[in-house]
Amino acid sequence: MGWFPLKLLNVGVRRERGAVFLKKKNAELSRKAAGEGMVLLQNTKNALPIKKGAAVALFGIGQIKFHLYGGGSGSVPNASENINLLQGMENKASGGRIFLYKPLIESYSAYIQMDGRGEMPLSEELLKKAVKNADTAIFTISRYASEGSDRKAAKGDYYLSDKEIDMLEKINRAGFKHVAVVLNIPGVMDTSWISRYPDMSVLISWMPGMEGGNAVADILCGDVNPSGKLVDTFAASYDDYPSSRNFSQHTDYVNYEEDIFNGYRYFETFDPKHRRIIYSFGYGQSYTTFHLSKIKLSESEKHVKITVKVTNTGKLSGKEVVQVYCGAPQGKLGKAARQLAAFRKTGLLKPGRSQVLSMSFPITDMAGYDDTGRIKKSAWLLEKGDYRFFIGNSLLDADQRGVQRIIKVNATKIIRQLAEHAAPVRLLKRLLADGSYERLRMDTAHKKMKTKSANDLTGSGEKSTVELRFSKKKAKIMLQDVAGKPAKLDAFIEQLEDDQLAGLSRGTKATVAGGTGGIGNLNEYGIPNVQTADGPAGLRITNPATAWPMETLLASTWDPELVRAVGKAAGKEALRNSVDIWLAPGMNIHRDPLNGRNFEYWAEDPLIAGKMGAALIEGVQSQGILAEIKHFAVNNKETNRKESDSRVSERALREIYLKGFEIAIKESRPRLVMSAYNLVNGIRTSENKDLLTHILRNEWGYQGVVTSDWNNTAAFYKEILAGNHVRMPSGSATADHLMIALQKGLITRTDLQNNVRPILKMILQTQAFKNYRPAEQAPIAISVSEATRIRAADFIDASAGVNIRSFPGKDSGLKSAQAGNGEWMRFIIFVEKEGTYSFTPRISTRYDHQIFDIFLDGRKIGRSIQEKATGGCHNWKNGETIDLRLPEGRHTLKLTFHTTEEKINGFELAYNGTNVNNEV
Ligand code: BGC
To answer: What is the distance in A from the centroid of ligand 1 to the CA of 758?
Structure first.
């Protein structure tokens, strides 16, 4: 008896892509983007930019604890650098641009080293000294946000803390010539206090990525002229946002009663005099001034065309953003008073120079969605009447300039007839344009309820008509044979066993250090393990990576070209790190300022979100890296995020919450979409056929893959039926779920085959596939003359959690596999002669009653039970011997574990005659 002399398996190795990190270039781009998206809110007395040679006193712990990115998927834990505000200012000081008042910095550093909480108490003495030694004071106020929790409408978060108010008072009274505040924030916060300090300047730096400190210093010192504009409305108080009424009302659901009136759409409709707005959508100042002239708006070939001349009338070079808003006729649907229709940013204009900006969009973009049949149910309608256009450098400015042009539509037109999908079942009312609420019917026939857990297999399906069977082996087709020959895809899929189809529908092991898992990994058929990594702030991996500014900052640049460049650089970096799929961009709409993930999303407006998303995707995919946009859809709250139901009308879905996705998908064709954790109108998004199949695929023509969000709580087989192709990250809690569903007839082999088709098409487009050399197929010969021992480590592929380690002791020198519940490993064997074989595993376990199942070509042929612990985790013993019938020829043999901690070192197969049947 001896170990079968195995030829070393040449497991597919990816060609090394070079690890040179384009640190400098990316750092420059990250800094540039950061500088373009920061928003100057107030600068009445021109405290900014700081005069050359001025002495500056830096206040606030935020100068050191400066947040460059948020928490969770939107963090970049191994950012290749992290420049806080203090370092950025020190860099300017070392170049002689400014002087910093050191004793103050020393105090803050010491306070932070002592782990001081909240703002540092400021002694009168230190303040006096600072005033004596510096003419400009900069106070940094920081806020943080992270995936997994929401922000709070409380002091120290949405509102200033008492300590911060105290600091503001002290600094403003101290006698500095100039005072400026930097708001290092992940989204909207209260700004009502700014009006108490009219002479103070205020800059929003957002969470600006790894070069953030340098980028803020560039603006504070005037090396960069701010040109960012808000992409969210800053209201007088949190309670002014209509969403505030129901955001925290219930943990299990949110009623989107404000309907289409999100953000500025609400304020413009119900507060046209801007009484409840502090900073309007589209607002942002510059160190220079601009004049808009020669505004022309015309209509031709169903497109509205606009040209505007922008002249820099100030003394510094700068950039301006022109925004076009539409006021559609109220008609029968009722409309928001304004809707962003187009926007464009100038290049850097020198003082006195002008640029003519042109924009254009189809008038049909102004259509509304009739979800209740006021005119024509389930249709996009362009209602007749006057379409008024407003143009300015902010929404307020556009309003103040008044109507620039009216375009008349003479008769109501149906733009596109669709069907009812994802309709609300529990939303009782919604806001209308006249301020009243419309009662919505409760659709009881439609009462779909959320399922209980990932393992829910309670549905009653038809018994599968497809027999679980040994496949008849034909000449094997490898995925490489399908490349360039799509007609072969069906035959390729046909040859896969049921459990292989199921395996392709689950995520796989991460091979990129710090990555988020893979897809594919069926080496036997030449399918590589394509790798994913987060997004959207940068690559969240173990290698050093660029941290880009948060999405809201990027959107505040109003510059899709710049965002495309960021996407391109991020794609290039993914390529160098063997990441095939970047989990970005986040596409959800800012509905409420407290959503903990707003920083991973663009804006309150779907046009901005859609255009920015499209630009980023295009940049990423231009490098051969696939973008996965997320979280589809209506993911606007973190509290109880896996169980919360977003109850929303079809109209608000179409016009607001899906619109950004639709624009990005149609314009840039991302290859993957990630469904969300939440439910939409009672159905988990990953089980939601209306969303994933009817709207995404059938209406929008999306052809790519949908994956679940990581570790969601949906029922796996229902996801497949709905059009959610891959369960991420590994679905290990539900490893045999699909096979059971198949046996119960809840899902068919055809469903699984259809499911893997887009997955394989996607894999064919990855770098992993292009660089893949499939393993040489070396089946392990099962001999009749002597027992064959197979090492666990010689599997051809295995699930994500299988670990191969060397253990000391009696069996030392051998590799062992340890597998948790649901994990598996697969071997390729060649049986010389059909017959019965004794199967004896070599195992060790600390626990009684350990089980694993044995599958041959996808069919269960045996179960190995170890009743008693073997006496320690390195105490190897031969397990129970069972008989298996093995047909002649080439087969896959798969071991699937059912218990938590069993280690297997290998197994032995000894020919034993001819008469056992594999009925389990
Ligand atoms: C997040 C996703 C992320 C995934 C992988 C989930 O918790 O919601 O946005 O891409 O984890 O890290």
So the answer is: 22
